[in-house]
Amino acid sequence: MERGENKMALIKPIRTTKKLDANGGEEEALLMSPTSRTFHEPNYNLYVLAILGWKVPINVDAMKAEIQSKLLKHPRFSSLQVIDESDDSRNMKWIPTTVNLDDHVIVPDLKPNPNNMDTDKLVEDYISNLSAVSIDMSKPLWDLHILNVKTSHAEATCIFRLHHSIGDGVSLVSLLLSCFRKSSDPTSLPTLLVSSSSSSKGKSNLSNNRGSIWSLMWQYLVKLWSCISLLFNTVVDVPMFVATALFLKDSQSPFTVPQGFKSSTRLRFVYRTVSLDDIKFIKNLTNSTVNDVILGITQAALSRYVHRKYEIEGKRKFSPQKMRCRASVVMNLRPLLGVQAVAEMIEKNTVVIQGNCFGIVIIPLSISQFDNPLDYVRKAKTTMDRKKHSLESRCTFYLSQLLTKLFGFKGAAALAPRALSHTTLFFSNVLGPLEEVSWSRHPLAFIAPTCYGQST
Questions:
Q1: In what residue span(s) does the O-acyltransferase WSD1-like N-terminal domain sit (predicted)?
Q2: CATH number, domain at 36?
Q3: In a domain, 206, yes or no
Q4: Active centre residues (catalytic)
């Protein structure tokens, strides 16, 4: 492994205009998408990191066999990313290669200090060290680190690391979960919660009210108002996003990144487990969603910390209410196919969901004090409901494509990440399985996904 700033020089540009297909004929090499190519720019060199805790020690050979039979069937995990010298724009292409699992599955010999058996810190330090190095571009850009060390969270830990150019969160998690099976039934794939469409309900209501002309008129008026509101929210949100990317920064606070911080700096990853039942209880109580509750909890924690820190003997140094604090939130734009569909695609060697398809929205965070803690969740719900009724995420996705066409990859990588660096927090989440799952009869205790390498 080499440091991030040297990674583009690890392999020389090569001419890659042709490759052999399954029948031995020649076909054009696969071109990398503009978004994926942008992730290779020095100030936008993103990696996805998934920390997986297991309830039993890991059988390395069984884990390798599962990777060989499932994960490597995905073309992105068995292809090199190389620069095509025949392309003046220095685009990159996917070139199939033979994968040596020993180069990707790493089993370090971690020996805890007998005088200090803090294995949690040992594992945290190992994960932290990974953030300071990048994957060698002479091989597919992913690796799996197996730590057979017992911690307070699990009997063993895996760190699954891959470059963000391989895919976005939805495609990668769907692919990863296709390697898992239900612990209660080793032959069944995990189940993902897919939101049901309300279209059938709307059609039913429309047919039931056909006899009333006033009901129809009322429905059309509601739809018209919804369209006007959608247009208004979009017109307000998109310029605000552009302003944030150009110059509008959040207020300096204990949560903002210090000046001079570099993305290649060694990071510390902290993860905690919370009760999903407690979150669901609050969700049902406030008629909100899980995301609303998480955002409300975050606002409550930030607000109480700021007020406590900046209030000295009853005198405030400044007004927290005037503090500009916002979060960049990644919104998936890809339709959810489900784990079953992905697994069938891999088995049949058909096209698997891949690449990056997401937009970014800017969400204001309220640094206020409420007597009722549930008010934080209600305020978060109001904010999220408004953001959902906006085309900001789709507009930012197409805006990034436009920037790439106008200014090239370097220009897009210089402008697009500024929205992230000018906000205080960064949120992203993906759906997980509804039941306990196992990988090659290794029951999963937890999974903590994150990413690093974004510009600051």
A1: 60-294
A2: 3.30.559.10
A3: no
A4: 164
